[in-house]
Amino acid sequence: MAGIGFELRKVFDQKGLFSRAKAYGYTGVIYAGPMVLGGTLIFGISYLAGYVGLNRLDRDFLTSMITYAILASLTVNSFFSYAVTRFASDMLYEEKEAYIIPSFWGSSATMIGIGALLYTPFLIFSGLTPVQLVLNLILFMELIFVWNGVQYLTALKDYKSILLAFLAASVLTFLVGWCLLAIKFPALTALLLSVCVGYGFMFLGIVYLLARYFPLDLDMLKESFLFFKWMDKFFDLTLIGFFLHIGIFGHIFVVWFGPWGSRVKGLFYASQVYDVPVLLAFLTILVTTINFALATEVHFYPKYQRYYGLFNEKGTLADIKEAEVEMITVMIRELLALAWKQLFVTVLAISAGNALLDVLPLGINDLMRGYFRILCVGYGIYAIANVLLSMLLYFTDYQGALMAATSFAIASPVFTMASQFFNRAFLGFGFLVAASIFFLLALWRLDRFTKKLMYYTLSAQPMTLITHEGLFSRLYDYLKGVGARATKKS
Q1: Membrane spanning segments where (predicted)?
Q2: How far is 486 from 490, CA to CA, in rounded Å?
Q3: What is the C-alpha to C-alpha distance for residues 465 and 248, in angstroms, rounded to an integer?
Q4: What is the DSSP letter of 420?
Q5: Cα separations in angstroms, 474 against 77, 84, 153, 223, 477
Q6: Which of 13, 44, 133, 446 has the most CB atoms at less than 10 Å from its CB?
Q7: 337 and 295 in contact (C-beta within 8 Å)?
């Protein structure tokens, strides 16, 4: 958020409804673009498949292949994303932009290497044809690049180009799909290939934008894996990202492989009555995602920057206390505003959702409507809990954030498994309970931490510098040594 914040403040300070809408649009493109694109592609491709007469089993199989690639890539990315984001932010703060591009390629290569080792065996034993296996693996790799690249896009200010890249990828996906189907290309392969083309174009667009903004120093490529040191230094962040992912999506896997899931083909399982409501309910949190970025960067961050700046600029105790009160007041005000906005969207989705669900060609039944309402509440609570956790990260309370994320990761699958012993209509309550626990723990920790903020800022810090040399640091040293030896030989 280091780069987007200043530009958002400039846009938001401009007068007029259009300027404010533009600020929301910019934020939405950066933070919600890939999420919306993923949902749009799944629904759009499903519609195309039905339009050309693809049978129900093949449509479900196609949707499962895309969904599994998305979830698998997000799982791998979640383990690295927070530490990589912290590394990129530190490099930007220290004006070491030359490290950005190497770290992008290094982190992407690491994720793809680890992900391919884990995902390829799954695909091999899933009964795919060779073409389907290759396309699935390509899609998985492209998604790794896209999720990782979006983290770096927050430093860019060329929002029109970013928006055009996202829109072009969406349009290209459907155009390629139509063209391949028009020439009688096998429907299943044609649609899967079109998704690969769309995400491939997005990946190329991200690379182009990053290359245009950040310098590429070939001598710095030897530091492509420097981010590994940040994974040791901020290992709590690594776990937080991974545990949040487990909490968000763990309940889906439990349903897939439980009594209410069904085998689509090979190792691919799904639960249509649960999957569609989950995806639709998940989209309702976009309002909080976008508004949180605006609220923190436009309103909260200036107060936050002033407060911590006073410690470095010899501010008086009175100035520091005054700045702390201002910062906490703004934080509470913005958190309450976010909660009200999310509540409004959740109530609107529940009340008006039935009419929308009837229009969509998704085969919605009464059971799915019930899941949708339950999950809207669950994801709404999760959205606010995630904001509270983000505030803990702002104050570097990594232990508190890790506690909340760990509880969420455990509660989500456990309570979902427990809900399967009751009536089928209670299935979504497992995630709702888990999100509520996450919210209460994050709220309690943030309240406790901010009441003793000056103590945690000054007295709770270590007296001596602590070095973090673990597995990832040793891996960095090894890879750097291999690169140095290879350079000498060449």
Answers
A1: 23-49, 61-84, 104-125, 131-150, 162-183, 189-214, 234-258, 278-296, 343-364, 370-394, 425-444
A2: 6
A3: 36
A4: T
A5: 21, 17, 29, 14, 5
A6: 446
A7: yes
